[in-house]
Structures are given as C-alpha cells and as structure tokens.
C-alpha cells in the first residue's frame, strides 16, 4: 500500500487531477491519509478510479481507513466495571457509594446517547450518498465516455498534421476504425530527427520531469511499472509491447532517430519487431490489453 502511495505522489497531485478529474483536495487527503476529511462512500469510488488508471493496489489504504474510523467507536463499556471501581473506594456510608454509582451511570448513558446519535447521522448520510451514487451512475458513465473521446479527438487534432502529398491517404484512414488500420499520426513535432547514435533492441525515454511508465509484454503477458526522473532504456528485443506513459512531455530515441512529445495527457504506444514503435489510441490500448470486456 505504501508503495502505491509513493507511485501516486511521484505522478503528482496536479497530474492525477487532470487525468481522473478528482479534486486536488481529495487527492491530497488520500495521499496524506487524512481520514477525517473523507467519507467512505465517496472515497471507495476515488480509490477504484486511481487503481484502474494507474494499476495500483489501494485495498490496504481502505482497510486502514476502516480501522481508524471504528477505533474510536468502542462505547459498550460495562456498568459492572464502573461499580467495581467505585466499590474499591473508601466511603463512610453506603449512600455515598450509591450516589457516585448513579452519577457514573448517567455519564455513561450520556456518552452512549452521543455516540448512538453520531452513528445514526453517519448511517443517514451514508444512505443519502449511496442513493445519490446509484442515481447518478448513468450520468457518470455518460460523462466518462466523452472524456475518452475528447482525449482521442485532442490527440488526433494535434498529431495528424501531415504533408500535402499524404492528405488523400489520411482521409481514407480516418474512415477506417478497425484495430489493424495503419493510422498516420506522424506530425511535424513527432517527426524523427536522425542521429549518429543507434539504439538497437531498446527505446531510450528522456522525460522533462517525473514520469510514470507501464510496459505490458503481449507475448509473455507480463507487466512492469516504474517512475523515472532521468533517461531510461526500455528493452524491446523481439517481443510485442504495449507502452503507457503518465504524461506526454518527453522524447523517445530509437535506431530511427529522436521523436519529441509535448503532451500534458497520458499517451500510449504499440511496439512490434516488424513495424517498430507506433502511437495508438486509448480504445486500441484497451482492446490489445484485454480490458475492453
């Protein structure tokens, strides 16, 4: 769980806010474990979004939240314990004992009433937010879908600037949404710059700032995640790889040259030994990784 929190902190509150649309305050409360500022019904939804987007396990965080919340709710103290502690005191008369026991009982009853009232309020609030969550579920789903479409549209509008001689080819490829289409997403800013240095069987990633990377081997079905702050090589060999980046502010260097990216949102690539490195859309990534079920 601590490792997951560390990964999220390296990605950064602002980056997580851009990607997940969770408010900055709630993200900081989750990362700093400020349990008193979070309601369980809502925080469960936040944790699921973070686990899905960044492939981290936050079940330990929720368990610690529950332990912290209920640690102060142990109110069923025995009246017999109070009577026992009072009987050990030295009183001159039985009446003094009875009066003190009566006073202690009143205090205990007052505390129990307070905690019972608090529990009732929490149950009512929990029921309200549960109803609201169910009621708004359909609208939330409809909101999530445009976000994915917006990302694809933004990526297309910024990346699909091609020479005039390729314009007809681009129009044909826009109408073909099949996974096997050969999308022409090479742009002026993405065009490789030839260099003297060769990087055979590896991709060199140089980030502008802290960058989260996920590599999914389609042949071995193994997944690897890391966060880098400096140049980092990804070994490709003869395997097919899905490569995801937490943001698009970095450069990629291969034996074909250097490609520079300046995108604030997450971007993804498919590498094959036959075609090399090719940028793909989120829908293609979900299908190739088996998450579109």
Notes on the protein architecture:
The protein has 10 helices and 9 strands. It is α+β, with helices and mostly antiparallel strands. The protein has 3 domains: 2-70; 79-135, no CATH class; 152-288, no CATH class. The strands form 2 sheets. It has a 5-stranded antiparallel sheet. Strand 2 (211-217) and strand 3 (223-228) form a beta hairpin. Helix 6 packs antiparallel against helix 7. Mean pLDDT is 75; it is low at 75-79 and 156-197.
Q: Which stretches of 5+ consecutive residues score pLDDT under 50?
A: 75-79, 156-197
Number of helices: 10
Order of helices and strands: HHHHHHHHHEEEEEEEEEH
Structural class: alpha+beta
Largest sheet: 5 strands, antiparallel
- Major sheet: arrangement of strands: 3-2-5-8-9
Terminal CA distance = 27 Å
Overall outline: elongated
Task: Assign a percent range to the helix content.
Answer: 40-55%
Strand residue percentage = 15-25%
> Using only CA atoms, what is the Rg?
29 Å
Average pLDDT confidence is 75
Provide the domain count.
Answer: 3
- Total E-strand runs: 9
């Amino acid at each position: 769980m601590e490792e997951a929190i560390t990964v999220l902190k390296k990605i950064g509150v602002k980056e997580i806010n851009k990607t997940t649309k969770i408010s900055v305050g709630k993200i900081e409360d989750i990362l700093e474990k400020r349990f008193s500022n979070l309601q369980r019904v809502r925080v469960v939804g936040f944790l699921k979004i973070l686990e899905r987007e960044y492939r981290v396990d936050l079940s330990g965080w929720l368990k610690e939240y529950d332990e912290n919340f209920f640690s102060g709710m142990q109110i069923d103290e025995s009246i017999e314990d109070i009577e026992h502690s009072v009987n050990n005191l030295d009183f001159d008369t039985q009446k003094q004992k009875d009066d003190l026991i009566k006073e202690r009982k009143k205090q205990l009853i007052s505390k129990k009433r307070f905690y019972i009232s608090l529990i009732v309020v929490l149950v009512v609030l929990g029921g309200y937010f549960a109803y609201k969550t169910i009621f708004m579920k359909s609208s939330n789903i409809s909101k999530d879908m445009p976000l994915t479409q917006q990302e694809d549209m933004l990526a297309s509008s910024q990346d699909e600037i091609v020479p005039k001689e390729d314009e007809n080819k681009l129009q044909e490829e826009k109408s073909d949404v099949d996974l096997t289409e050969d999308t022409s997403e090479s742009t002026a800013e993405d065009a490789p710059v030839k260099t003297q240095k060769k990087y055979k069987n590896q991709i060199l990633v140089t980030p502008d700032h802290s960058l989260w990377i996920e590599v999914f081997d389609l042949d071995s079905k193994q997944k690897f995640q890391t966060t880098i702050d400096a140049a980092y090589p990804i070994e490709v060999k003869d395997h097919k790889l899905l490569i995801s980046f937490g943001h698009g502010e970095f450069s990629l260097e291969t034996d074909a040259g250097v490609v520079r990216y300046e995108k604030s949102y997450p971007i993804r690539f498919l590498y094959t030994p036959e075609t090399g490195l090719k940028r793909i859309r989120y829908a293609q990534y979900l299908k190739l990784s088996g998450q579109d079920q």
